[in-house]
Amino acid sequence: MLNYILSRILTFIPTFVGVTLISFGFIRVLPGDPIIVMAGERGMSDARYAELSAQYGFDQPIYKQFWDYLTGVMQGDLGNSFVTKRPVWDEFFALFPATLELSICAMLFALALGLPAGVIAAVNRGKFFDRALMSTALIGYSMPIFWWALLLIIVFSGNLQWTPVSGRIDLLYYFPDPTGFMLIDSLTSGQSGAFKSAVRHLILPTIVLGTIPLAVIARQTRSAMLEVLGEDYIRTARAKGLSTGRINGIHALRNALIPVITVIGLSVGTLLAGAILTETIFSWPGIGKWMVDSIFRRDYPVVQGGLLLIAVMVMVVNLTVDMLYGVINPKIRKR
Amino acid sequence: MTDTSAETSTRPGRLSEFWFYFRENRGAVIGLWIFAAFAFVALFGPWIAPHDPTAQYREFALLPPFWQEGGNSSYLLGTDPLGRDMLSRLIVGARYSFFVGIVVVSIAASGGIILGLLSGFAPKWLDTIIMRIMDIILAFPSLLLALVLVAILGPSLTNAMIAIAIVLQPHYVRLTRASVLAERQKDYVTSARVAGASKTRLMFITVLPNCLAPIIVQAALSFSTAILDAAALGFLGMGAQPPTPEWGTMLAEAREFILRAWWVVTFPGIAILVTVLAINLMGDGLRDALDPKLKRS
Question: Model pTM?
Answer without folding.
Answer: 0.86
